[in-house]
Amino acid sequence: MSSSHPGSEPVVELRDGAVAIGGRPVLRHVDLTVRQGEFVTLLGPNGSGKSTLVRALTGLRPLTLGTLHLFGTPLASFRDWHRLGFVPQRSSAASGVPASVAEVVGSGRLTRRRLLRPASRADRAAVASALELVGLADRARDSVATLSGGQQQRVLIARALAGEPDLFFLDEPTAGVDLPNQQALAAALGALSAAGSTVVLVTHELGPLAPLVDRTVVLRDGRVVYDGAPLQVDDAHGHHHPSPRRTDHHPGVVAPFDRSGEDVPW
Amino acid sequence: MIDLLGHTFMQRALIAAFVTGLAAPVIGTYLVQRRLSLLGDGLGHVAVTGVAIGLLTGLAPTWTAVAVAILGAIAIEVIRERGNTSGDLALALLFYGGLAGGVMITGLAGQSAATLNRFLFGSITSISLDDIWFTLGLAVLILVVGLGLLPQLFTVAQDQDFARVAGLNVRAYNLLVAVLAAVTVTIAMRTVGLLLVSALMIVPVATSQQLARSFRRTVVGAVLVGAGSAVGGLLVSAYASVRHDVSLAPGSTIVLLALACFVGTWPVGAWQRRRDRLHAPFPAEPVEGHETTDHPHDHGPACGHPAVPHDDHVDYVHDGHRHAPHGEHYDEH
Hints:
The complex is a heterodimer. By secondary structure, chain A is α/β, with parallel strands linked by helices. Chain A is built from six helices and ten strands, in the order βββαβββαααβαβββα. In chain A, helix 3 crosses helix 4 and helix 4 runs parallel beside helix 5. The longest helix of chain A has 16 residues. Chain A is globular, with a radius of gyration of 20 Å. Chain A starts with 9 loop residues before the first strand and ends in an 8-residue tail after the last helix. Chain B folds into two domains: about 270 residues, ABC transporter involved in vitamin B12 uptake, BtuC (Orthogonal Bundle), CATH 1.10.3470; about 40 residues, no CATH class. Chain B is built from 13 helices and five strands. Chain B is globular, with a radius of gyration of 26 Å. The termini of chain B are far apart. At the A-B interface, helix 2 of A face helix 2, helix 8, helix 9, helix 12 and helix 13 of B. Chain A: Keywords: ATP-binding, Nucleotide-binding, Transport. Chain A: InterPro entries: AAA+_ATPase, ABC_transporter-like_ATP-bd, ABC_transporter-like_CS, Metal_Ion_Import_ABC, P-loop_NTPase.
């Protein structure tokens, strides 16, 4: 498929990946290769398997079929977790006990810290520069619970940044975030991308992130239906349309009446 | 009072209360962070069976209680990890089974209810020298592991998915917290009793988080409140029994003193949270027209209206809207 970084090393290589949750197939026959330095967005309607794909790529969901290599290493023997940055899909960075912004961001340094050792000067510097990059340096000592939703989302991104990874997975970082916060987020991701990091982003709406995207992957019903140049919402003609083929795996009960003139393959 | 402190049993009791008060809130903080405040209570119930097995077999009840509480903690963690929707129910069944089993086995052992009461409500003044060493050893273990692994345990309790992608063995850390909670339950058993164990783990944390804004400060504050109320409660109950001939159970005095600390700090925390909300940013909204208002007084630090930083100036909240000084008048922001 098309790639703006054809010569560089593949950092994510998924071959014929399938994931089932509770026996129900959620992803089927997914092939995805992400090369170093690419900025890839995963698009698709709710329930199309975007988040499941990211969770499979980070090792949170076991593959029922297929093989996954990260940085050329099979997932089972992958140990360089400090090369991965993950921003999970969640609305809040707060938990049952107060935690300061610096503490939450500092937990992103764990991939680079040894057991039972205090935080080094490098650790504190990384936390400070991560907070600087997302524009929250002045809130480091505040409790995360006092921040707005968009600011908390930026804290979660700073946490992933603090580990200084090469490959970022972000699961809907812009969901429920207002425009100024989305712009702050886009600026941070743009700086990362310019520095050569690889970014895999799940999103519903690109908004200010649109200019950063190198490549778009569209999922529908757990399959990749488009993989190529960024799609524009208003780009009605002259681009590669997502395949119109129906890929529902459940038997069509309603469809024959709705679509009597259509040849439905199942 | 000074005479009282000269007694060996009182010195032992003070040491036991102090180290228990230090150790219990450390584990309690992780339980509160994971919203498992009642886990300690459940483990206390399960430990009753352990005590009863000790009474039946003639082994030291403290050791059998540790063993059974750890088994219970592992069972709870396994049930939780499976993520069954009925996990909560399974925990309740385990707790009630633990308590009922304990009472029944105590009866089989031919022991009276009074024997079991020593463990249910604590018997800090009858602690033996062996028990002191046992308590000290386990408390040191809890403090070293609980504080030494603070960054790891904090991350796991804060966000499990993130911790897993960071390469942490989430299951091992969760099990570690559950096992440490079981150990805490058994060392606090002698101080406040199995039925009030959870209070010494949770109430200091609830008190401390009223004032703290960071996790580390919450832990430090909780340890201070825990150790302070454990020692303070013991002294109060001793003083009452010597001077006024009133028998106050040390365990309940300790817990009520910790609760009093919470009641004392709650208004401060509520006031602080209210003040933080005033500092919270207004949601971004499009700037409306350039309205101006005449105003009877000059806004300033002393005018009594809440001040809100807004870009390069300060707005003053006034009757539900914001006033920004602009030359001779105020703009509505």
